[in-house]
Design brief:
By secondary structure, the chain is of the alpha/beta class. The protein has helices at residues 10-21, 27-30, 51-59, 70-76, 117-126, 142-145, 160-164, 184-189, 191-200, and strands at residues 2-7, 37-40, 44-49, 65-69, 81-85, 91-98, 110-114, 131-135, 151-156, 167-176, 178-182. The radius of gyration is 19 Å and the shape is elongated. The structure holds 1-O-pyrophosphono-5-O-phosphono-alpha-D-ribofuranose (PRP).
């Protein structure tokens, strides 16, 4: 049995579409209701979890492989194998400010609000630009509006959340997409099952 962890929400729909195309019995994944564990044909055991928990389950080996966004992998930096980039979940990490405002101006220490403090810290370290980070759990766009921060580092997909809240991107921090990850031990002990799953979903690893 191959244990596969899927990220609930935006990526779930796209992942199930990919499985459907591969002919992996998906009716039970689409109509799973509130079920968190779904077995398919006695071959696959899918679990549905939050992105950061997908990484934890794969790292601990209770899931052999998983589907998760590169954003989560960049923030968590856990010892899992990133075995393939998937053709969905495409977006970017960007630095955004209130429209027309300058970020790199004046001598005061700039404050950046984000759900991704590690990614933000690393980005400004590579630029050798000192900032203060404020961790926010959601709707980060509020921070500059409320004058809590000079800018935000966040995920931008269509750009409409920024536009509708009077913000604009000034720099792209990193390109992101969904990734297939594996537990390093499973990659050895279940190599054939993982390869066969990847062949089915037409993903080269
Ligand atoms: C993400 C992100 C932005 C929005 C970007 O938030 O943090 O707010 O999506 O998407 P867009 O460019 O297509 O508008 P999410 O919907 O995950 O909610 P959250 O902010 O409450 O975490």
């Amino acid at each position: 049995m191959l244990n596969i962890a899927l990220t609930k929400g935006r990526l779930e729909e796209k992942t199930v579409e990919l499985l459907e195309k591969a002919g992996i019995a998906c009716g039970c994944l689409v109509d799973k209701g509130r079920k968190l564990v779904v077995e398919v044909d006695g071959v696959y055991r899918f679990i549905f979890a939050k992105a950061c928990d997908v990484v934890t389950y794969v790292e601990r080996g209770v899931s052999d492989i998983g589907v998760v966004g590169k954003d989560t992998l960049m923030e968590m930096k856990r010892p899992v194998n990133e075995i393939a980039a998937l053709p969905f979940g495409k977006c970017r990490f960007a630095l955004a400010v209130l429209k027309g405002k300058k970020f790199y101006s004046g001598y005061s220490l700039k404050t950046v609000a984000t759900k991704y403090p590690e990614v933000t810290k690393e980005y400004f370290e590579t630029k050798d630009y000192p900032i203060e980070i404020v961790k926010i759990e959601g709707s980060v766009e509020l921070a500059p509006i409320l004058n809590l921060a000079d800018g935000i580092v966040d995920i931008v997909e269509t750009g409409s959340t920024l536009r509708e809240n009077g913000l604009e991107v000034i720099e792209t921090v990193a390109e992101i997409s969904a990734r297939l990850i594996s537990n390093p031990v499973s990659l050895k002990t279940k190599k054939e099952e993982i390869l066969s799953f990847c062949r089915k979903i037409s993903v080269n690893i």
